[in-house]
Design brief:
The structure holds two protein chains of two kinds.
Chain A lengths: L5 H10 L30 E2 L3 E2 L2 H9 L1 H4 L12 H12 L4 H5 L2
Helix pairs in contact in A: 1-4, 2-4
Chain B lengths: L1 H19 L19 H33 L14 H33 L11 E6 L2 E6 L4 E4 L1 E5 L4 E7 L4 E4 L6 E4 L5 E5 L5 E7 L11 E7 L1 H12 L8 H12 L35 E2 L4 E2 L2 H9 L1 H4 L12 H13 L2
Parallel strand pairs in B: 1-5, 4-10
Antiparallel strand pairs in B: 1-2, 2-3, 5-8, 6-7, 6-9, 9-10, 11-12
Classes of the chains: A mainly alpha, B alpha+beta.
């Protein structure tokens, strides 16, 4: 994600309480079951079972899920464009091949 | 073999270090220390601790030195002669090292302990104002009886003055501990204990239950918010107000959800008058009249924000397995309006 900072995104995910519904690897305490798990997010085809999983759609979804899918369980959390960029950067962040080999 | 031992101990050490810093800091940092006191009572406790550490280190050093001397002393070339030390020397070592020295050390510690206990004692007479804390499995009910305020998991106090808190429990034994402000004291069913604490600095201090009290003992925290006298008065005034009926239509819908989904059967919202509810049963869960003004939810285990509230409302059993609050099976639209309503409880 252009301009997105992975480490900052991780902090924002913790701050907005995403982990109370989603299970997100690498975010302490984010092990909830209420909403879909976000591991291997870059491999998912759809966001919210509806939007193709593109960077642009993810940014929209993070900022205003209620507009895209009115009445969905995910509340609008007041995430702004820059924050959405950082969060998206974390969600799309994937382990490099050497990370996987050395695991 | 030595290398293996070295490697595995290094691994264990690393593991310890990692586990020590893995928890996401909830605001404020959730690892308060007794050695960083922010009030006179905690300072007394810390001072006693340092004294004991000092004496302990001194004794350890002397014993280690004696041990080293005994190990390194050259053996006599011949052992035909009888050892020159007679029983007298041995007896002197026993007398000084075994009786007089421990007596001196223990007397010092005993004296300082008595002094510390007296120093942190709750002063006699009526306190300036009353705070009652009732421990529940696994949260803290906080009452200001003179002002008619009931809140949860957050104790506001004015800075710089001693505050007396009366402590009780309705279920099992808990222990009240704010490491930076005072020592610990148990909360015992059908017995009221008192503790005095004072904060010398404006700030937020984390407290914990310090007596194992069941499944979610580890998630039974609270915050002490020390404020200037004027901020404290403002807070009191705000907390005294009942919740207003929301003007926003979404929040109003959420209020209906709050009633129809049954939240009202355990949670009080002052100002929300529903005649169909049996008021006598309403103290199972925290009073939510000013929920959104609090720093945390769920016994200070989550920061108070919309994301955490959503997850907590629908699936508390995952956040705090065994908690009294059941999972809520409400549709997603109702969840949105409910969150809008909860946000109005300022």
């Amino acid at each position: 994600v252009s301009g997105g900072r992975v480490a900052v995104g991780r902090g924002l995910i913790a701050r907005y309480g995403c982990g109370s519904c989603h299970s997100i690897p690498g975010v302490p305490g984010a092990d909830a079951m209420a909403a879909p798990p976000l591991d291997h997010f870059y491999e998912r085809s759809y966001i919210a079972g509806r939007l193709p999983n593109t960077e642009e759609n993810l940014l929209k979804w993070l900022q205003d899920p209620q507009q895209i899918e009115p009445g969905t369980a995910m509340p609008n959390l007041g995430v702004n464009q820059d924050e959405a960029r950082d969060i998206a950067a974390y969600l799309y962040h994937q382990p490099s091949l050497s990370d996987i080999i050395n695991r | 073999m030595m290398k293996r031992l070295y490697q595995s101990s290094l691994f264990l050490l690393t593991l310890l270090l990692i586990s020590g810093c893995s928890a996401e800091p909830i605001s404020p940092p959730n690892t308060p220390s007794t050695l960083g006191p922010h009030g006179p009572n905690a300072a007394h406790v810390a001072q006693l601790w340092w004294l004991m550490l000092g004496l302990g280190v001194a004794i350890f050093a002397v014993v280690t030195e004696l041990l080293a001397a005994a190990l390194l002393r050259r053996r006599r070339a011949t052992s035909t002669t009888a050892p020159e030390s007679s029983g007298d020397v041995g007896r002197r070592w026993l007398l000084w090292g075994g009786i007089i020295l421990p007596l001196v050390v223990l007397t010092i510690i005993f004296g300082d302990t008595i002094y510390t206990l007296a120093a942190v004692e709750v002063p006699q007479g009526q306190p300036a104002f009353q705070i009652h804390v009732v421990a529940r499995q696994w949260w803290w009910q906080v009452d200001y009886p003179d002002q008619g305020i009931t809140t949860a998991n957050e104790i506001h106090v004015p800075v710089g003055v001693p505050v007396q808190i009366q402590l009780e429990s309705t279920d099992v034994i808990h222990s009240f501990w704010v490491p930076e402000l005072a020592g610990k004291i148990d909360l015992i069913p059908s017995q009221a204990n008192n503790i005095s604490l004072q904060s010398d600095q404006v700030g937020v201090y984390r407290g914990e239950c310090a007596e194992f009290c069941g499944l979610q003992h580890a998630h039974m925290g609270f915050m002490v918010v020390a404020q200037s006298q004027s901020d404290f008065n403002t807070w009191l005034a705000a907390q005294q107000r009942p919740a207003a009926t929301p003007t926003d239509s979404t929040a109003l819908q959420g209020q209906h959800v709050f009633v129809s989904a049954g939240c009202v059967f355990c949670h009080t919202v002052r100002g929300l008058d529903d005649k169909s509810v049996d008021r006598s049963a309403i103290d199972l869960g925290p009073d939510l009249t000013h929920l959104s003004s609090r720093l945390t939810i769920a016994g200070a285990s989550l920061n108070q924000n919309r994301g955490n509230l959503a997850g907590w409302v629908v699936d508390p059993q995952h956040v705090k397995p065994g908690v009294r609050m059941p999972n809520q099976y409400i549709n997603s639209q109702d969840l949105q309006t409910l969150l809008a309503y909860l946000a109005t409880l300022q």
